[in-house]
Design brief:
Elements (H helix, E strand, L loop, with lengths): L6 H11 L5 H46 L1
Length: about 70
């Protein structure tokens, strides 16, 4: 995942500091972890969509060039 931390690495980091946290802080960390997972999925979907859009754009450009010839 390039320079991004995986969900598992985030969970390990949370576990390493969990002993010093209040219950409210632990709940907040869990909520943030869920949000991180959702954002990572959304990011992956957006990257795929962008790649598809770029490919369609290249095809359209090639078609235009062929028509102008």
């Amino acid at each position: 995942m390039d320079n991004q931390l995986t969900t598992e690495s985030w969970l390990a980091r949370i576990k390493s500091v969990e002993a010093g946290l209040t219950e409210e802080s632990k709940a907040l960390m869990e909520d943030l972890l869920v949000e991180i997972e959702q954002l990572q999925k959304q990011n992956t979907q957006l990257r795929k969509s962008l790649a598809q859009a770029r490919q369609k754009s290249k095809m359209a450009t090639k078609l235009k060039e062929a028509l102008y010839e």
